[in-house]
Structures are given as C-alpha cells and as structure tokens.
Design a protein that fits this description.
This protein has 237 residues and is an alpha+beta fold. Helix content is 33%, strand content 17%.
Length: 237
Amino acid sequence: MNATSHNIGILALVAVLAGTGLYEYAQADSIDRAIAVAAQDAPKAGAPASETAVLAGGCFWGMQGVFEHVRGVTKVVAGYSGGAKATALYPLVGTETTGHAESVQITFDPRQVSFGEILRIYFSVAHDPTELDRQGPDRGSSYRSEIFFASAMQEKVARAYVTQLTAAHTFPSPIVTKIEKLNGFYAAEGYHQDFLIHNPTYPYIVYNDLPKIEALKRVFPTLYRDKPVMLAVNGAQ
C-alpha cells in the first residue's frame, strides 16, 4: 500500500470510528494552536546537557508518541507517577485507587529545547489541560493533567506559566493541571513502550493520538522532527 492510499484508509477509519461514538478525540476545538511562549523560562545558555521532566496528560501512548517527535528530546519512557512503587502496575493503576497517573518521563537537552518549550507543547498539542481527571474517551484520576516537577526551577517555570496562560484567558475553561513534586517515576510494562510507533493503525491511536503528532508538526515546525526517538530496548528505564 502506498502512502496516499494508506492515509486515505486512516481517514476512512477515523470517520467510521467517529460515527460509532466509541472513540473521542482527546482535545477541545480550541487546542492544537500556538499559545504564548513561557514568559519565565530556564535559560538555555549554561544549561546542563541533560534534564528530565515528568508529565501526565491522559493515556501515555499518545504523550510518549508526541514527545518522541520533539527536537532536543533524547528519550521518552511511558510509566506511572504519583503513587507507590508497589502499585505501579497497569492492572492496579486502572482501578483508580493507587494515586498514580499515566505519565511520561522526558529526557531532553535543555540547551536545545527548554523546559518552558516542553510545557508549551504539553499545554497546546499533547493534551487538553482543562479536562479534569479525563482525556477524551479515558476517565479517571489516572488520566489527570499533572506536572511532577523535579527541581525548584521546574516548579517556578510551571507555576508561572499556568498563571500566565490563565491571566491571558488562553483556554475557554480553567486550567486544571496539578503541579506537585516528583516523588518517583516507574516505567510501565514493556508492551506499553513506543506503543504508538509499533501500532500506528490501532484504532485508538489513529483517532486519539496521530492527530496530536500532526498538530505538533503544523504548530511547532521548528521543534518537530520527523524521525521519532525510540527506546533502545523496549521497556528500558
């Protein structure tokens, strides 16, 4: 199948799924557009060669898929944060009793892409920050919007950016993103890693997540890279 016919097939599948009501695109109409840059951000000059950020914003398949296409990102791991290590297991997290949120651990070069730029992508194309304990078709606190800051600088940038976006009425509804200290990140099971890359025609991915990557390419062309960075070993931490 050539690229054109493949894309036509994907669009047809999306239309069918939309008609069934089984799948719901995870973002509001007002998302997928450029939003203001973070007025307060960590400087790139003199920054270390590597930094990590842990973000939650719905199903980690799509979050991982989006950030794997961002320039300056060197690794993205799907996993869990917010609860105890002993309960960081997919069947348990799905009970909504563990305190965990499906999250991604993003390793990036802050000399190439700043934490503020990571958050700009997070708020504008990776998920909808106005949805409380849900994203699209997924419901429950494990799908919440949350920034788990790993340093005082990350906390400062995150809180200032939410204040900035709120004051500017960037979104039609209030931002519900939680901002809390990172107390642990636990990699998800191997079959969840790079799920979007390995399963590009999976219906959930087609309807809920591939549009986010297209939005990243369209809205942030200078931060987008066509070839995603994958984990060297499936499930590696």
